[in-house]
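dumping this here so i dont lose it
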């Protein structure tokens, strides 16, 4: 399908195919594809752009690769805690792990969850219910308890 576009030569089509198949490309190839606007993401987690995904019928995979805005995950966590009063890190992990971008490996997904929780605690959305990090749960701060 990509070959039908006059702007793409055969070499470009092969490079895009490599990206789709998660085959490593070198930095010059990466710069070339970025300049064309056919890829997104950061190394090593690059993926085809929305425009290319539309052409190759890969729109669903594009969304899975790109993931959602962090506010989406934060809203899920807040809704969970509003409904159930508290959430352990395990609860939160189960809630959002399968919604994180497919291009992230398991370690990166765990880091993403940790970063989201850290950001939420720094903005005053959530807090721990004890000083013991291993045994504590996340709870809503007064800021959100008022909006129950």
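and the seq i came up w/
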């Amino acid at each position: 399908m990509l070959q039908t576009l006059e702007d793409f030569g055969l070499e470009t089509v092969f490079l895009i195919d490599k990206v789709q198949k998660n085959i490593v490309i070198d930095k010059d190839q990466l710069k070339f594809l970025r300049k064309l606007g056919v890829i997104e993401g950061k190394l090593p987690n690059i993926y085809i752009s929305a425009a290319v995904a539309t052409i190759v019928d890969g729109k669903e995979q594009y969304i899975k690769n790109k993931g959602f805005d962090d506010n989406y995950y934060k809203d899920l966590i807040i809704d969970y805690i509003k409904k159930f009063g508290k959430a352990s890190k395990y609860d939160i992990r189960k809630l959002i792990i399968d919604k994180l971008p497919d291009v992230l490996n398991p370690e990166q997904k765990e880091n993403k969850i940790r970063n989201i929780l850290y950001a939420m605690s720094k903005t005053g959305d959530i807090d721990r219910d004890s000083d013991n990090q291993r045994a504590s749960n996340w709870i809503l701060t007064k800021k959100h308890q008022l909006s129950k």
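The chain is about 55% helix and 10% strand.
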